[in-house]
Amino acid sequence: MTGRRPAAAERSAARRIVLAFLLSAAGAVGFAVTYALGGQTQWEGGCLAVAFAGLALGLATWSRRLVPTGGYVEEHDGFTPPPREQALASAALTEGDSPLRRRGLLAALGLALTALGAATLFPLRSLLSLDLSSPGEALRNTPWAPGVRLVNSDGRPLRPTDVPADTVVGVFPEGNVDAGDGPAFAVRLDAQRFAAPPPGGHLGGLAVYSMLCTHAGCPVRLFLRGTGRVLCPCHQSSFDLLAAARPVAGPAARPLPGLPVEVGPDGFLRATGDFTSPPGAGFWDRP
Amino acid sequence: MIVDRLSLAVDNRLRLSPVVRKALAKVFPDHWSFMLGEIALYSFVVLLLTGIYLTFFFDPSAADRVYRGDYAPLDGSTTSAAYASTVQLSYDVRGGLLIRQTHHWAALLFVGAIVLHLSRIFFTGAFRKPREINWLIGVTMLALALLNGFTGYSMPDDLLSGTGLRIIYSVVESIPVVGAWLVFLAFGGEFPADLVIPRMFVSHVLLVPAVLVALISLHLGILVRQKHSQFAGPGRTEHNVVGSRLWPGYTLRTLALFAWVLAVVFALGGLVQINPVWIYGSYEPAQVTSPAQPDWYVAWGDGALRLFPPVEFRVAGHLVPAPFFPGVVLGGLTFLALYAWPFAERLWTKEKRSHQLLERPRQHPVRLGVGVAAVVFYALLVIAAADDVIARLLRVPLLDVLSVLRVLVPVLPILAGAVAFLTARALRRSDAAGIGDLTRADMRSVRGPAPEPREAGNEPERPARDRPGERIEVWLEDGVWRWRYRDDAARVVITGNRALWSAEEAASAARLAYPGVHRVVVPGPPPPPPSGPLRAAVRRWGRAATAGSLVVAAIAEWRRNRRRVQRVGADPQDPPPTAPE
């Protein structure tokens, strides 16, 4: 609209564009050289960034200085076609021997397709092993059972003396250290201070609880020494181990399940049963 | 020239020139906010390219693998293949860490651009008829982007991502009746199931990207078919799009934006560390990092999980656990609200017309209020996901931070929404140009009924009368016809986007774009040629006369057709045609 731009302005814009593209090429070369010399993440990223920024600068200057911005209009014919056109289209779709007129056949076709669609859902069941027919059952049961020894993360069995006072020690079912629902912790507190007895009982102040938060299953790993409380770092639920691991803050609503333990004839700690309730997050079939 | 010869060769075989001529002239509005969706598109391209590179090195398996490589603390240790290959990819594959970090940054940018784009669409009412379909597609793509972000973040099997996976597992598990089944089917068993890593991989690199590519194509196809909406302004009507043409202005500009996106993500990927999985260690069910924060786009869910009170109850002996409400219900309601908004608004306003002109946020105070409240609400939830970090930084007890947030989350959004609603109403009822110009009287005018009657929603639109100085100019240039709209009062001249074969075509395009402007003149080619010898003048006038008579003939012909159509009983909405001057 403005005719030719002044030659001087155009020349200076062109010069800047060339400079930007040269910068871009230099960045690309820098990237290649960095890579060939052994690679270094910061230099590689920086060089690529310079290469693309140069490209961007050049293109942006080109679009702003050497070609017109705006000033054009395109007509928009709207989306309500004339009624006659709509009528013609729908007539073409439904006239004469159109399959859309055979209501009975369509219903039968719909039935067949529905049956097919439903049938194709069946193989989805294979996503879960067919041996596993009750997720609720699997969630309720853990590897803990009468006689299963308590081991540490290296698989070494633990004696009561391995749990010092006012400390938590992570314990796992022997042979199932990696199980998702097995992690527990042993803690030794002053039995005189128990406001409520631990659900799984205690051996002279030594009680064992599930390590999984009853809110969303994160490990309750942070022990606040002296207070007898543990804290979950995911959503900050806090449980009072002096009061049967009752939730005292945060979004958790249920206490941590306890694990009943005894000292076996070999002197090592062992479970006398499963957790007092299913560990971890809640679910529909949870008793 | 080689380009000419090549395009000629292609055209002689495919006959693309009519399509290309139209495509190159396609008009894109010039407002900056129209670039947000493009940023999302270009981040997606970066994600595809960097992601393909990563698949060459990543081993999506939970099987044991011994890591041997340059990262000394892990050298010789046995971890899952997924984790070992991620560390390998970061330390021992030259350029691997750059690509991995760029991929992660691009994912954050991708979701960010989608959210900003969605906000722009929402606050300007661009989702209204006829663009509801694209709104639904866009919301679906947001959900898929969140899903793919989460699976990508979870696949390396590091401690942080494993913890995140466990939380999602617990959230899905909390769904009444089917929760445990759903989560067992997805994971292939009880957490931590080995099958979940290869499954997330297939979903992350094949399933979801394929659906995203299909939806993006559909999104853009519909965009081209429906053409862009635009903000109101001189020369802009419900019947046109004003801006730059695809070629050359817009192409250069959008390529520049693509290059900017690449520059930013590579700068971040090279210089700013993200997700250093070798520091977190591999996932063990009994280990956890503290503090633990997810990527920003799932942080709202994490924040809600932290804030929601410990409420759970039993229904007929069955448990509805606490994470169900902040996890499943909030997420479900969020997307339900997003999907339903265009239709809910249409029910509310009883507005059935199509819209090509966007609204300013202030023009719809209710929508603005709801939108601002929602933005504040989700922003507070994102902040809540960092409550432990805030407590540490401010040296205040964590429980105090939690209590403050539990009050702010329900209260602040309502306050912010109300303020936005009242401000928008005051702006709409006064003649203030911006928030700074509002007077106390303006704010007082908010109370009470609206001063002017509500504009009738569904009356057929009537073009305004010609304003003085407003006209369409049609001229012949180099054998083709062009037209432009000129409004002397607003000082705008807007040229039709493409060359046309006849004056009739040019005039009808102008009529479509400016249905209210009845004055069509033939001024001769711009700029007027320098005064030359008599012959040039005669030729010029001759051409103008030919053009004029052609236009008159064309319009006369059009009117005749029109009358014939009207007699048959076409729609009576259009104004009676008027003869040109």
Mean pLDDT of chain A comes to: 91
Helical/strand content category of chain B = alpha+beta
List how many beta strands of chain A DSSP finds. Answer: 11
| Tally of helical runs of chain B | 19
Mean pLDDT of chain B: 88
Distance between the termini of chain A: 78 Å
Low-confidence stretches of chain A: none
Q: Helix tally of chain A? A: 5
State the separation between the terminal residues of chain B, measured CA to CA.
45 Å
Contiguous runs where pLDDT drops below 50 for at least 5 residues of chain B? 453-460, 569-581
Question: H/E element string of chain B?
Answer: HHEHEEHHHHHHEHHHEEHHHHHEEEHEH
Largest interface: chains, residues each: A-B, 89 and 112 residues
Largest pleated sheet of chain B: 4 strands, mixed
Helices and strands of chain A, in order, run as HHEHHHEEEEEEEEEE
Proportion of residues in β-strands of chain A: 5-15%
**Shape annotation of chain A:** flat
What percent of residues of chain A adopt helix (DSSP H or I)? Answer: 25-40%
Q: For the report, how would you describe the main beta sheet of chain A?
A: 4 strands, antiparallel
Derived from helix and strand composition plus strand pairing, the structural class of chain A reads alpha+beta
Name a few traits of the molecule.
heterodimer, A: 287 residues, alpha+beta, 4-stranded antiparallel β-sheet, 5 helices, 14% strand, flat, B: 581 residues, 4-stranded mixed β-sheet, two-stranded antiparallel sheet, 19 helices, 10 strands, disordered C terminus
Task: Give an account of the 3D structure.
The complex is a heterodimer of chains A (287) and B (581). By secondary structure, chain A is α+β, with helices and mostly antiparallel strands. In chain A, 32% of the residues lie in helices and 14% in strands. Chain A contains five helices and eleven strands; from the N terminus they run H-H-E-H-H-H-E-E-E-E-E-E-E-E-E-E. In chain A, helix 1 packs antiparallel against helix 2 (41-66). The N and C termini of chain A lie far apart (78 Å). Chain B has 581 residues and is of the alpha+beta class. Helix content of chain B is 58%, strand content 7%. Chain B is built from 19 helices and ten strands. Chain B has helices spanning 2-14, 17-24, 36-55, 81-91, 96-123, 132-154, 159-173, 179-187, 196-226, 246-271, 277-280, 296-307, 324-349, 365-384, 387-394, 398-429, 440-444, 503-513, 534-568; strands at residues 27-28, 64-66, 78-80, 240-245, 313-315, 318-320, 470-477, 480-487, 492-496, 520-521. Chain B has a four-stranded mixed beta sheet with strand order 9-8-7-10. In chain B, strand 5 (313-315) and strand 6 (318-320) form a beta hairpin. In chain B, helix 3 runs antiparallel to helix 5 (96-123) and helix 14 packs antiparallel against helix 16. The longest helix of chain B is centred in the C-terminal third of the chain and has 35 residues, at 534-568. The two termini of chain B are 45 Å apart. In chain B, 41% of the residues are buried. Mean pLDDT of chain B is 88; it is low at 453-460 and 569-581. The interface between A and B is large, with 89 and 112 residues.
